[in-house]
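Entry:
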Amino acid sequence: MEERIVIGITHGDINGIGYEVILKALSDNHVYEYFIPVIYGSSKIAAYYRKHLDLVNLNLNMINSVSEAAPKRINIVNCVDEDIKVEFGRSTKEAGKAAFVALERASEDLKNGDLQALVTAPINKENIQSDDFSFPGHTEYLQEKFADGNSAVMLLASDITRVAVATGHIPVKSVAKTLSEELIVGKLRVLNNALKQDFGIIRPRIAVLGLNPHAGDNGVIGDEEEKIIVPAMKKAEEEGIVCVGPYAADGFFGSDKFGMFDAILAMYHDQGLIPFKALSMDEGVNVTLGLSVVRTSPAHGTAYDLAGKNEASENSFRQALYMAYDIYRKRTWEKEISANPLKPTGLAGNGPDE
């Protein structure tokens, strides 16, 4: 059996469904055949949720660092104040601070190579804001730490489809002025490379959506398609990227066209995520592309309305764990096969080219 990799798990907002989906996912013994889980959070809170959810058979292992992590156990690195209070369904500054501290600690271990991948439970994007965290979400925070100055791409993936977004967590009123030929080409490069490296697709086919209704109707309902999107696609095609479109988003998802492509590039968050979640909410995974490390998360948020009710599905979180493992293994495999196995031997003939 291959050596198990270590996957870090941040607990997210403690008042949402984070701990519930984490513990439920880790109650499946099959996951321990592939990796060693390390939760960054609180052993006290984990024990509280274990009891509340009647998961009494789960074995929680409190550790000080990743080096102490044991296989086939739920390892927990304490990051937060032991006196912090769980308040189901409430957004509190204490919960936001606890989410950030766990994310920061896990990111440092990821950077240092102590973790092979990171899976993040949902945060509340408002209560986590502070002098230390001023980002719209995980994607932008991790981009600053691990994208080497490049632009990261948010991808939602499932067995049904994969949808990436050209613009992420920004107001809708800012989308049109944010789009540019350079931005779209950059997103297509990252998406194309990730489909090859992380998903093992030799020659990816990418569908590109238009920005406006009916993809602008040749300039009648907006000209961003003609002035920005089409020129960007032509430039990407010159680089060998197979991209088709721009498609009108409603007709594209309303038909079976989305099944003909390896991935879709939407122009803004809801244009891509609404149809994706309608198709794959329970199984979808959020993957941050363009990073030097592997990061995934479930495709849902904190779900305060479900917090504490033992009704949340762990399927998306479980898929996020498995996808993090798969992507790490694919990257490792690609490095191995692309490395030159031939080394100079010092032996040479006496031919004229010597």
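The chain has ten helices and twelve strands.
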